[in-house]
Amino acid sequence: MPTSTVPVPVPDISMSLALSLINASVAPVLLLDGELEVVAASQSFLEDFDIDPNAIPGCRLADLGAGEWNVPQLWSLLRATAYGKADIRAYEMDLVLADRPPKHLIFHARRLSPGPDQGVRLLLTITDVTIPRAKDRQKDELIRQNALLYQEVQHRVANSLQIIASVLMQGVRTVGSDESRSHLRDAHQRILSVAAVQRHLAGSTTGDVELRAYFTDLCRSIGDSMIRDHNQLALTVSVDDSIASSGMSVSLGLIVTELVINGLKHAFPDDRNGDIVVDYHARGDGWILSVTDNGVGMPSGSQTVKPGLGTGIIQALAGQLGARVELADARPGTRVSIICLP
To answer: What pTM, to 2 d.p., does this model score?
Structure first.
């Protein structure tokens, strides 16, 4: 294929270097004059954009091809750059082709210092980023679809948990044994604690849970189903701005559920008045979760949490979180702390 460089005298060193660069370039490069006529074009430009080399000498950029290069905004920017009034760095545009898909291009233009017998010269480099941009769009669309699918799954799981909780609650009303009702009610609350996490995850774009809102929602649900007189028993939440992953949130929620249920069952016999406080605060790289009541307190001589299903759940969940369980006399009442410190 014949060379595209126009054989004109080039006394200026910078012009000679520019023409040498264009001849050697494997990327699309143009040398334009002040009127945006093509002085020289690299072989890659001719091949990439299907330009006839014989059409190059004396042809304006806007007249190349079938007129697809006649883009007023690009034309204006190049004219301004040629006369030192603007600078093109990474200007992006779509080049609309008549018989092929459009190309997404990035333009860089630099004004060359003219020699004494030379007019204005403009070096224009072109990068075709059609494929990378298409891949980026595909990736963004995939991320968007996955996010929608994730939220849909969260909604469906939350709805399913609510149905299970409702079925358990119907069992509470129909079984005759007090012990069976108690077990069903406990299972109902455990399901609600997981459902609360799912509701918060459904509204999250990151898969993380804001613990203050989550614990508040969870304790409100427990209180509504287990506290008959809110003037007699109060359940309050004190949580900082911590955010936790979905897995950690489920474990923390189940721990809170077990401890609050245990406090409501055992800390206030004979219709005593009282308070239960759920507290969570970060401590450097660790955290402390505590549930404190001002009820009757631990039996005399007791040093550990009374063994049972709830105790086993708490110990297992704390172990999964790398935390330890501490039981203390709150004077009055009891404080159970789940401590995870480095």
So the answer is: 0.53
